[in-house]
Amino acid sequence: MIKRTLLKMTIWNSSIVFCLFVMLGGSLYGLARYQIYSDIDRMLVFNIDHMRQFSLSTGEKVISIDSKEPERFTMIYYWDSNDILMGSVYYKQPFSSLSWILRDKQDHTGPESIQFGKKIYRFVSRPYEGHLPEIEKMLMSNAPLKTVQMFTEISAEVFYLNRLLWGIGFGIGIGVILSVISGYLMARRALVPIQKAWDKQQQFIADASHELRSPLSVVQGQMQLLLRHPDHTIEEESVPIAAILKETKRMSKLVSSLLLLARGDSHEEVILCRPVRIDGIMKEIAKNMEPIMGYKQLQLQLHIEDAEILIHGDEDRLKQLFMILLDNAIKFTQEHGQIDLGCVKQGKSVLITVQDNGAGILKRDLPLVFNRFYKSARDRGDQGAGLGLSIAHWIVDQHQGTIRISSEAGQGTMITIRFPLIS
Predict the structure, then answer these.
(1) How many domains are there within the chain?
(2) For 233-244, b where at least 16 C-beta lie within 10 A, e where not — what string?
(3) Residue 228: which CATH number?
(4) Are residues 288 and 244 in the same domain?
């Protein structure tokens, strides 16, 4: 699924980048072409609309164009009412070979391009308005003049436009390659969190299945033992029934933890925050854990300020947090060990510490202890599912706090939590 999504995202990203290249290249070419052609067309239209005839001091009749800009090479054709080319005015050489093409375009008043051989010309046609009487006399024709045409060669401009187009095409080709590469890299980067979430989900399902398989196997085995002796009383089968009850409780606890984490991931689990005394909660938890501490012959030291320490929090979830941390501390501390529980104000936050002198955690396991179902070397014989610290981390996050863990193997573990105080 991830590979298929990666392919689709690569195609989409590449297509978007390619379209941007095409639009940019097309806009550049269109702008250049418009600018060049508009300049030529403006010159042709101006020249043909401002032709005037006047006499030199020598008596020679010439055509003048009221233009202050330098003129480029242009040609002028004169057509009579019978569509016969009566003559032409030119600056270099006659282009009578073009006459058969231009004759059929006398009514095309807008600027147009034509190709003749390897050269390209731009022309404009205008109906004759009688403003060149001397030209009429020079043509010696009984038929009146009908059309005046002016054209100029634009082969150089077209050549450079074609080179520009080829350059843009080459750039787009390079852009396609770059767009595919960049699209692939962008898609891979975008899919990194998705891939991590997918792997995490797969690992979560595999771990949950593994954790549930053991108690289910025990329950199934014990139930089969019960069915072998249907005539036995409950007292006679108390051992398998107790085993079934124990594993059922274990599964219930595991399912509850999984449900809590799943609802937390989907933001369905609501934390009801209100002002609570964190010092009072910790003292209450410590008092409730005294019987277990006495049973394991452990000593609990409290370092809690006497003043009220208020935070915004969910009392039930905070109790669950401290139960998890103290339970772990008790579980991995040997007899006659010590557990220290601290709660002090530091600036705008409250610092909470849970420290023991138990087995500790290997350095390589420290970055992974908050992962779901992860069990460090010290947890291998533990019957837990490895979800306690994951739940603790989630509770701290929901209270806008931070949690850190430091430990050395054989030297004990210290967990540090910070919560923002109520200002």
Answers:
(1) 3
(2) eeeebeebbebb
(3) 1.10.287.130
(4) no
Look at residue 125 and give its three-state secondary structure. Answer: strand
Gap between the Cα atoms of 47 and 353, Å rounded: 92
Per-residue pLDDT band for 59 (boundaries 50, 70, 90) equals very low
Q: How far is CA 221 from the centre of its chain?
A: 52
If asked whether residues 205 and 152 sit together in one domain, one would say no
- Domain identity same for 281 and 380: yes
Alpha carbon 421 to its chain's center: 36
- Tell whether 121 and 231 lie within a shared domain: no
Whether the per-residue pLDDT at 288 is higher than 80: the answer is yes
Rounded to whole angstroms, the Cα distance separating 284 from 262 reads 29
SS3 357: coil
Q: Provide the token pair at 70.
A: 């330098």
Residue 150 counted as domain residue: yes
Which tokens go with 95? 């282009």
Which residues span the domain enclosing 416? 274-420
Query: Is residue 214 assigned to a domain?
Result: yes
- pLDDT of 151 strictly over 50: yes
| pLDDT for residue 50 | 66
Is the whole-model pTM more than 0.70?
no
The backbone torsions φ and ψ at residue 128, rounded to the nearest 5 degrees and listed phi first, read -70, 130
Least confidently predicted of 222-231, 334-343, 346-355, 410-419: 222-231
Give the amino acid at 300. L
Percent of the chain with pLDDT over 70: 78
Q: Give 239-264 pLDDT, tens digit per residue.
A: 888 888 888 887 787 777 777 777 77
In this predicted model, what pLDDT tens digit does every residue of 386-396 receive, in sequence order? 778 888 898 89
Q: In Å, how far are 260, 302, 312, 325 from 281, measured between CA atoms?
A: 21, 13, 13, 14
Q: Is residue 178 assigned to a domain?
A: no
Nearest-5° angle of CA 319, CA 260, CA 222? 100
Reading the block at residue 62, the tokens are 């010439």
The C-alpha atoms of residue 26 and residue 20 are separated, in whole angstroms, by: 10
Do residues 99 and 215 both lie within one domain? no
Whether residues 319 and 394 fall in one domain: yes
Pick the closest to residue 274 from 320, 319, 309, 311 (CA basis).
Answer: 311
**Unique residue bearing structure tokens 């205008």:** 126
pLDDT at 422 over 80: yes
Q: Is the residue at 18 inside a domain?
A: yes
Residue where a domain stops, chosen among 236, 265, 294: 265
Is 178's pLDDT higher than 90?
no
